[in-house]
Design brief:
By secondary structure, this protein is α+β, with helices and mostly antiparallel strands. The structure holds adenosine-5'-diphosphate and magnesium ion (MG).
């Protein structure tokens, strides 16, 4: 991308940050940040055709590329501050770049995150965002869970998987429910405030990107225990249940990725504090099961063993 590379950066991405801790932002060989404490860093790549369908709008892609990273920081209980963007595009399309930047900056501004650097190359559409944040007094990890802890999820699960199905089929449904599910996939809401609020009380946390059973499985592995999920307790949205039969909705909720809710664990003694912390964020959470001795995630329905239709997404 020799032609116009620096014009593109200047026009679409170089917005002088208001943050005085950005000592040097876009324009030099690297950014310089005044961090003062522990940095929490995450990076995620979205590849066209793998992570998103060509039908996704450029502004949604800009939002999503940042959102998935903010979600990783949320799962750590960290506060996001800065990001970098490595963007590979097949051509310099003004309209596309304008919309992409609009989506990215709208979410960045909502969370007080400054874009401090990046890279721009020509090639198959690929977006890599890195987020840098600061840790609170206590970082949440996947490793702190113990048998007997309750397992919770925020919000509702399965909407994004339902939304992908609608986008991929170019589903004509223009109902409010169909639009809500497509939005859940295209513009996920990272649970940033919730992660920070939970950090003092939760024992372990992860964001649900690959599917509840797969991601709770990661908590189990890192915490050295197993989990039981009562599937009738898994929160499903009214929109999901409007558009899909109950069994399909549950399958999406258990194994569909991309919801970016938080799955977390906490000792039962913390239940009231957890509820108050999330209520202050205006976000519901539901207890869906428990950590147990042993390994792996098993499901129950109304107390009886239940075999889920599928367990989640892996790349290889
Ligand atoms: P270098 O050749 O040193 O890697 P570049 O020419 O790639 O530098 O980038 C010039 C400046 O523009 C750097 O400060 C870099 O961080 C910034 N930059 C490049 N691409 C982007 C982008 N997509 N978004 C934000 N900043 C970018
Ligand atoms: Mg470069």
């Amino acid at each position: 991308m020799s032609l116009g590379e620096f014009e593109i950066i200047a026009r679409y991405f170089d917005r002088p940050p208001a943050d005085p801790d950005v000592l040097l932002g876009i324009g030099d060989d690297a950014a310089v940040l005044a961090i003062g404490g522990s940095a929490v860093v995450a990076v995620d790549t979205l590849v066209a055709g793998v992570h998103f369908h060509d039908a996704i709008a450029a502004d949604a892609l800009g939002h999503r590329a940042l959102a998935v990273n903010l979600s990783d920081l949320a799962a750590m209980g960290a506060t996001p501050r800065w990001c970098t963007l490595a963007l590979t595009v097949p051509k310099a399309d003004d309209e596309w770049l304008e919309a992409f930047a609009r989506g990215l900056f709208a979410l960045a501004e909502r969370h007080g995150v400054s874009l401090v650097g990046g890279d721009l190359t020509r090639g198959p559409l690929t977006v890599t965002v890195q987020v840098i944040g600061t840790a609170g007094a206590r970082s949440l990890t996947r490793a702190g869970g113990h048998p007997g802890d309750d397992v919770y999820v925020t919000g509702s699960l399965g909407d994004a998987a339902g939304g992908i199905a609608l986008v991929a089929e170019r589903h004509p449904a223009a109902s409010a429910a169909a639009n809500a599910l497509r939005e859940r996939f295209c513009r996920p809401t990272p649970r940033v405030a919730e992660g920070v609020a939970l950090a003092p009380y939760a024992s372990a946390a992860i964001d649900v990107s690959d599917g509840l059973l797969a991601d709770l499985g990661h908590i189990c592995e890192r915490s050295g225990c197993g989990a039981v999920v009562d599937v009738e307790r898994v929160p499903l949205s009214a929109e999901l249940l409007t558009l899909f039969p109950p069994q399909q909705a549950l399958a999406y909720a258990l194994a569909g990725g991309d919801d970016y809710e938080l799955c977390f664990t906490a000792p039962p003694a913390q239940a009231e504090r957890i509820e108050a912390a999330l209520e202050a964020c205006g976000t519901p959470a539901r207890r869906i099961g428990q950590l147990v001795a042993g390994e792996g995630v098993v499901c129950r329905r109304d107390g009886e063993p239940f075999t889920p239709p599928s367990r989640g997404y892996t790349h290889f």
